[in-house]
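ARCHIVE CARD
Drawer: 12
Card no.: 0347
Subject: one protein chain, sequence and derived structure
Cross-reference: see card 0346
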Amino acid sequence: MLAYAAAATGALLAWSALHRRRVERRVGARLPLGPDGIVRGAEGFTLDGDPRRAVLVLHGFGDTPQSVAGLARALHADGWTVRVPLLPGHGRTVRDFAASGAQAWLDAARAEMAAVGARHERVALVGQSMGAALSVVLAAEAPRLDALVLLAPYVTAPAVVRAAARAHVALGWLLPYIGSDGGAASIHDDEARAQALGYGVVTPRLLRELADVVDLAHRALPMVQAPTRVLLSRRDNRVGAEAAARAAERLGCRTREVVWLERSGHVIAVDRERELVFAHTRGWLAEHAPPAGPGA
């Protein structure tokens, strides 16, 4: 019996190692690295505009600045200085992603927020998915923030994600990587989905790290005071409509608005209604953080 158990355990470990290598090779072939070790097209960037006002834009879990680049360019066209950082572990090898975690993401987002706040008089914040969860935490901590826009905010986690996060040690022993991109359900637009630079896989441990960010953001919602617009999709495959609406109601700000999309998945800044996302984001920032007057 002991010999059988040992053999079975050895077979499972061998299969797990093979699975890991296959996934890492497949993701590496799809997302080749540049000479700087970053996936080509996934780099963080800054678009210089009005030096008096800036917007920090944060991408989502397992994604890259590519997923919010179109929105960044639209905001820059309105005169904003736009900063879009690449979060730690993201946009690199899938092993780098697997080794990252909640504290590193939070620390990087806080450092970016502090840098933007130190350089500019007016500051706005935009986040998508987990980037929106990080934005909620930053907004709750910010001494000043003129406007906040949350795109498909991942501030509540479905039961299946919670269960996987709780069982991450055992699950990770069997399945080093789990598929996560949702395919056509996350991005309905075929061209945008083909251009996406997300990994498409996640480790069970990373689900635990994501759950930590979600919990922190959920607790921070009542402390947000900046005027906030929340953009949600009724066809979001990751954030249930009812849960998303309840989360928006927890926001502590007096000025808030929820806008519903009808034809998008979860990554709304690149999906079929991206132009609406751009317009609603631009409009909110223009209303609550307009350009300063001459000499202001």
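Annotation on reverse: The domain at 2-288 is CATH 3.40.50.1820 (Rossmann fold). The mean pLDDT is 91.
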